[in-house]
Write a structure and sequence with these properties.
single chain, alpha+beta, four-stranded antiparallel β-sheet, 4 strands, 26% strand
Length: 143
């Protein structure tokens, strides 16, 4: 397994550690948003991701680069194996684990979504390199 998405996306990953977003407090449907953001990431809709991001989270080029990297190295998503919310760095994060066409190991995509439904952080990489968490759950993902 190539440690390929660990991450050329350092600024976005750093923002995962510095946000104050809590999905369990969100007045929006965080699960639906997380799914939409993942869909946009996988089809390369960097402008849509940027338009729904907290200022300074990532740039259009960073989103585009990550989308391209996933497509080139992992292929396309075959099946979602798990969707869950985990507590990490004090934030409730959406974790989506999926099987992809060009790699054997599942890929993990993580999002932090703020109370207004904006992207406050993103991370991606092989499941075997998932970061440590504080808790396996962090409450209901909708407000």
């Amino acid at each position: 397994m190539k440690p390929w998405i660990v991450l050329a996306f350092a600024t976005a990953t750093a923002s995962l550690a510095s946000t104050g977003a809590h999905a369990q407090d969100a007045p929006v449907d965080s699960l639906a948003l997380a799914r939409q953001y993942t869909d946009w990431l996988l089809i390369g809709q960097a402008d849509s991701l940027l338009a729904h991001s907290v200022e300074g989270t990532s740039t259009r080029d960073e989103y585009a680069d990550l989308s391209r990297l996933i497509a080139e190295r992992a292929g396309f998503e075959l099946e979602v194996s798990e969707e869950t919310w985990k507590l990490r760095n004090g934030d409730c994060q959406y974790w989506r684990t999926s099987q992809f066409s060009a790699i054997d190991e599942p890929l993990l995509i993580r999002w932090v979504i703020d109370r207004e439904g904006r992207i406050a952080g993103i991370g991606a990489g092989p499941l075997s390199q998932a970061p440590e968490i504080e808790s396996e759950t962090c409450g209901a993902p909708t407000g």
